[in-house]
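Feature request disguised as a bug: please show the residue count (1343) next to Sensor protein EvgS in the output. Example input:
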Amino acid sequence: MGSDDGNLKPVKIVGIGASAGGLNALESLFDELNPTSGMAFIVVQHLSPDFDSIMDQLLSRHTQMQVTLIEDGMPVEANRIHLLPPGKQVIISNDKLLLAERAEGTSLAFPVDELFRSLAQNVGENAIGIILSGTGSDGSRGGRDIAAAGGVVIVQSLESANFDGMPRSACNTGVVDLILSPGEIAKTLHRMANEEWPQHEKERNSDSMELVDHMAPSMRLIFHLLHQKFGLDFSHYKSDMIARRVERRVKLSGVSDLESYADSLTEEGDEINLLYHDMLIGVTDFFRDCKVFERLQLDVIPSAVDNLHEEEEFRCWVAGTASGEEAYSLAILLAEEFSKRGIEKRIRIFASDVHEQSLAAAGRGVYSHDQLGNVTPERRERFFIERQDGFHVAPELRKMVVFTPHNVIRDAPFTRLDLITCRNLLIYFTPPTQQRVLSLFHFGLKTGGTLCLGGSESLGNLRSEFQAIDETSRIFRKDREVPSTGIRGTLNRVAWTHTTDTTPPPDRDATRQLLKTYDQLLKRLNCPALLVNEKREVLHVLGGAGKYLVFSDGRPTNDVLQVIHPELRSHLSLALIHLRRDKHPVTVEPVKCEINNQVTGIALTAETFESGDEEAQTVLITLQVTDISADAEVSPTLLSAAELSNVEHLERELQFTQDNLQSTIEELQSTNEELQSTNEQMTASNEELQSTNEELHSVNEELYTVNAEHQRKIDELTELNDDIDNLLTTTNVHTLFLDSNLRLRRFTPRIAELFNLIPQDIGRRIDSFTHKLQDATLTEAIREVIRTEQPVHREIKDQSSQWYLLRIFPYLSRGTVEGAVVTLVDVTTLQVATEALKKSEERFDLAVRGSNAGIWDWQNVKQEPIWCSSRMYALLGRPPEQELTVSYWRELIHPEDEQLVMDALASHLERGTPFDIEYRMEHGASEEYRWFHMRGSADRFGADRVVRMAGSFEDVTDRRLAEEGVQKAVARRDQFLAMLSHELRNPLGAVTNATAVLASGAADESITRKALEVVRRQLNQMSRLLDDLLDVSRITHGKIELRTGKVDLRHIVEQAISVVRRSLNDADLSFSVEMPTEALVVDGDPARLEQVTVNLLTNAIKYTPAGGDIRLSLQAEGGFGVIEVQDTGVGIPRDKLQEIFSLFYQSDETLDRSNGGMGVGLTLVMAVVELHKGKVTARSNGPGRGSTFTVTLPLSTSAQLAVAGPVARPSVAIRQVVLVEDIDDAREMLATLLALRGLSVHEGRDGAEGLELIRKVRPDAAIIDIGLPEMDGHEVARRIRNDSSFDDVRLVALTGYGQDADREAVRESGFDLHLVKPLNPESLDTILSELADIQRGPAKTNV
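Example output, currently without the count:
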């Protein structure tokens, strides 16, 4: 904003009030607001005085206008935001802002109200009040003042407000013009600032808003629509006020001009109702203008009550009552005056208005705490009843007031009134209408009655009919019964249509007739002439005819015969008589006259002039100057001298007769007016008598009805008394009725046992009896209840340990306390049940706290709230203070699950199907969706209606994840089994074919060798598969064990290369190796590390096409040994780089499915590397771009390798062997292999046979299968070892189980070696050598 803007006077001053949540609304408002609107903005927020505010900095980010903290005396400037400092209050006076400290010690402050009130007083219709988000009601009272001053009140819409307390309170006042969002408020302010309104300045000047002839067609259409819908004629209202109200609605509705607005009123909508509401002045309050009510209370009302006759009713009329506050205020004053005098309240207050909605609100008599701000606490306590929806007018007050529709302009007034109040209504009427209404008020008042007007209103022509009681307060007393003439009569009502061709009202007929006559005369006449009407009154003087008129001293007259030149008077009089009789023009011969000392001849001509109105005859008298000496023709109607003398005599008599007649007419008019007034009073009295007669008939009927009702009530009371007697006799409740002196009035039989009472004790004091209750303060408690009227409830015991619920209530009769009622209810069973319930609740609470599940209770299925246990809140990750509702619960459900859950809930509520469902909900802490299991059961009232539902709630995310893992594992297992079947069938097929070749006998030696090589190679393949299966089992159970030592990674890599060298050559791949010259020593298991390297190289071979490259490198990096295998093969998709390490994972890119494997190689690699505290990673740029696997292992802190010296052991030759195997083929083939090596083999088919052979043969070694029938291998070994004579026998376990636990079991059974099937024939010699080297001893075994 430029510096010059601050000197501009604002076109409007906008007061903005906000509280909680108001910052967002303010930011949204100023984001959309034009910084050069020409308006000034005053922002008031509820800020704590204990903290510095940075509101100016925050708002500066959202507007280009300058944001300034208000200082005392600061002028209001356009295009500037004036911000209220914390702890202050601000008002505006003379375009300056005045600050004041907020009063200390006051808990409530209303700074927005204070600002709005000052805006209304100092700016008036240029004030705009905006109420934004906030709690409480600040701003609603000030909004009323702005509306009353003609300003605009705008409220933020409840939907867009974070807190709707302040907007809702303002809306409830009924004075809000617009309810908009902050952005829409900004647009509305733009229109106000840019004057995008109807042409109110161009169309309205001093006469532009005349409501009859010169009214614009659009305005006439508006009046017609209002009159058509509401029956109210606004032609009697002041034009400037009507224009302002209409223009205000035009502005607020946002249309471009008045004509468009008038057209919009013809459409369906609420705008015409809003316009009607704006046209009517409805701002009122209790005891508004306190000085006026003080004067009424101190002087007027006491004097009026003094003048009432016995049994006479005090009658009052409140005209324009709006929402009823003023009527009730007068009712309070009258009720207090009558109560003070101790007389019956014979009060009738007629409260009238034309707005039926306001009358309906007044009839309800419900007001807020703010609306009762001017009512003292004592009056509020006496005359109002506080309820949940507000303060209700007490019935005592309500029955005094009769609210009725009434139009003060059109309808007959109420009569015989002691008091009329009509404040600030007449100022909106035109002066004739004001006089009409005041005349009606005068007629309705008794002589001596009081009239109270508004501060800006006066009596006008009726001032002489009233005596001022208090001129300042505008309180007057009626002096006499008959008002002055000239003020009575009825007002003509204009038929409002929207056409321009309208008939003018009667009060302008004379003027319009004169104008038409002028138009004709100016065309025809140039000589001197006089224009007179049928009463001979001069209407106009033409052509210099004024010199022939003579006015005498005294009261002036307009009669042409009185003012015409004396020498012409008789001639003119006779001419007029002839003209009236004959209806033809009359000419008088020239008459000698002396005009201005010059003698001349004047010829008169009188003729009737037609102006178009048959009822009004106009006469034109022409005066022609002639030469008196010349001979002139004499008209045939020329008069003689005798006739002229006779005419003069007749004229004098006629004048005397006319004077007498005029006097008589005036007296008759006065008498007629008096008779008319009396007739009106008689008519009104007759109407009231008829009304009273009807009321008497109605009262008579009511008396008959009341009498019948009383008789029926007596019967009912008799029956009720019998019922009470039976109730007291048969009830199980112990009851005592006591009067105010604690004397017995009545008691039940059961309480008689506790107090030792008999029927004759009625009337005795209760404290004269002993009782069996263990309560020494009972009597004192009864006295306290009678004194304070506060009931007492407590549990007591009697001497036999019976429990009772003691309740003492005040005994009320006609609203006063006249004793007490004491009841005792036996609650012994209830006490037992309560104790049991308490224990049950404790158990339940303990169970709930110990359970992992949450508990929920939907106590009313028709409402939103759901009670939840603290555990359920914890499961949801929500704070316990956050209430869980049905709507909020639905918001937390995963969108994909919501319909499923709601269908299940609806099915349970409607058909009773089980509600047991798992679904996902948003977790508050992590903001992720977790799985929950909810169960519930509904409590039904009858067969159908569900009233309550409760159940449990459990987090099952881990279980669901585990189940998903299991499902994936099962899928991989199935894939693995299918793959295993494939992998086993391939070598078995090759072995089968090779066996067939060998069995054919037709094959030569080379084919035989080739077949044997196939069998050997395929058997090795199956052996590897079985080893992998064993490793899978170890991985699954986490039982891979390492035999660690100092290992040089170079030796590991060299050994692995030697294992895969043949596969590399067969695959036609280029292979390169990079290894350091120094040793890279790690702490590891050499076999497992070799297995890792072999698996990585095997994978590279399988997935690299012929002609590809494989590179293996070994190097040291920062204390780690790094093995890297890189290939140019098929590559790996980026999203599979982690999944390839999963168990049973198989790539579809294997080039040779015959060597596809089972998908456990990389899983073994990761497991072994991690057991060595290392890490394995895979990299690839995508399919077809090769892959790189990197293994990182920590180097040993001690790089020295252990050197084992040779140990000389004497060998024992193995000659005899016992072979125990239940599978014949396996046994025979192994026996054959042993026999080919020169051993003597003894075969056993089961454990018992094998044990017998060992004992019989005493072999050097026994090879025993573990899974033997009848007696397993473990039992055979234990029995052999239990016999010390067989200590030298070497035992070898042969089994398909190769896990570590199996090896441990074998060792504990006494075996010396553990061999895993299938046995490799090539390693048989090594095994026999190891057996020979074993030294049998009682304390030494080697597995």
